[in-house]
Every structure is written in C-alpha cells, then in structure tokens.
Prior knowledge:
The protein is of the alpha/beta class. It has a single domain, classed as Rossmann fold. It has helices at about 75-85, 100-110, 130-140, 150-155, 165-175, 180-190, 220-230, 245, 250-260; strands at about 1-5, 15-20, 25-30, 50-55, 90-95, 115-120, 205-210, 230-235. A hairpin with a 5-residue loop joins strand 1 and strand 2. The longest helix is centred in the N-terminal third of the chain and has 14 residues, at about 75-85.
Amino acid sequence: xxxxxxxxxxxxxxRYAEEGDASGEPVVFLHGWPDSSFSxxxxxPLLPRHYRSIAPDQRGFGDSERPEHEYSIAGMxxxxxxxxxxxxxxxxxxxxxxxxSFIARRVAIAHPHRVARLALIGSGWSTVSPVTLEVxxxxxxxxxxxxxxxxxxxxxxxxxxxxxxxxFEGLLAESIKAPAWVWRQVFDGFLKYDDRPDLGRIEARALxxxxxxxxxxxxxxxERLVAAIPDAxxxxxxxxxxxxxxxxxxxxxxxxxxxxxxx
Length: 263
C-alpha cells in the first residue's frame, strides 16, 4: 500500500493508505475503535486492482494527528467528507466497521451526495447497550500508556474465528498508538450518537455484513437496520465474530466486490 498524509479543511492531519488504480472507482474504508487503517490490511489487497481503495487513520488513531477535541461521530464524519475533497473524490463507496460503520452512516445522512454505496460491517442499532456500557466503565480510569495487555484482552474479545498471530500483534501495536484520553473521548462521542430517527434518510444502497458470533451487536440489530434503511441487504456469516474483515477477509473482499459492481 502507498501511505500519504493530508491536512483536512476540518483541522487534523490525516494519514491514509491507498492501493489500486488512482483513477479507479473510489472505495473508502473506515476502521473501528481503537483501530487504524491496518484493520483493513487483510481485505484491501484482495479487491480488484481497478478500484481506488483508501483507508484513513481517523483523527486520534494510528499515525494521524490527535486534536484535543471534536471526537463526535458528526465531526469524524465531516473529516471523511473533507478527505474526499482532499483526494478530489466526488462520490465513493464507504465501508465502515463497528465505530466506522456509525461514522459511515453519518456521512450518508449528512452528505448524501458523497456516498455511492454503503457497506456496514459489524454495525448496531444503537450505540448504547449493556456491552458498550461495560466497555465505557472499563476505560474510565485507563492510564497512559495504554497497557498492551488491556488492548489484547479487548481486541481478543471481539473475534471468534482465530486470526494470524502477526496480524493480531499488528492490531495491538496500532491500538496502543492512541493515548487513553483519545480512547475515552472517541467512545464518549460514540455513546452520545443516535442516528436511529434519521436512518430512513439514507439514499445510498446498503450492504450489512454481520457475523453470527458477534458479541457486541446481535442479529436483531441487523434486522432492525435492514428495516430502517430504505435499500439494504444483509450478508450473514456463520461462525464469525464482530470482525469479519479480520476473520474472513477473502469472503468480505468477494462480497464487497460483488456489491460494488452490482447496480
């Protein structure tokens, strides 16, 4: 992958990975919490080379800048629109995993003309649940630097199918780049976000990708999302956890390629 930095009109300097044809149809990948563009490093190389795949480290994470404030879902969605401007992209397919799926949804609601299609991996009906409130409590007194064992325990809890050791260690290394205050501010912004009344405004065709062993968001959430988003379909992955893009990248890449190519 090629790595670049760009200063967004909304403020922070963002690092992003890019692969494929620079003049091809753009696909933008938005990672989850507390990840980085590395989260998609098993998927992007498997996509057809004629796509222009772009995966940013979202503000606060990876090697992007960490401003002191504005870690709301709305603010991070505005970053995505600004990134499209910086990359001279009018419209793109957005792929979002977990936290990134809520950011992608917000872009589709607030900037509908910028979203050609919407792929939501491990998304949920609401940000607030017993599981997410438990996560909030667990990071309330998290110290810097974030202990790698804490990151290991959290990330391991999100997967069901084993993933390669070197990839998992890479995820951990990326996770602890962000300080504890970023972990907290982003998660606080996540919990405050509620787009359920606005899901019917999403104009883009949507694909939901969900693993049946997802420990964060249940099957009921997926069915409610499919009912609420005007044009949405669900791909159900047996024996896969919250992170299909980590656990079965070949299947995710194939389903994304089919989705993007279809009318």
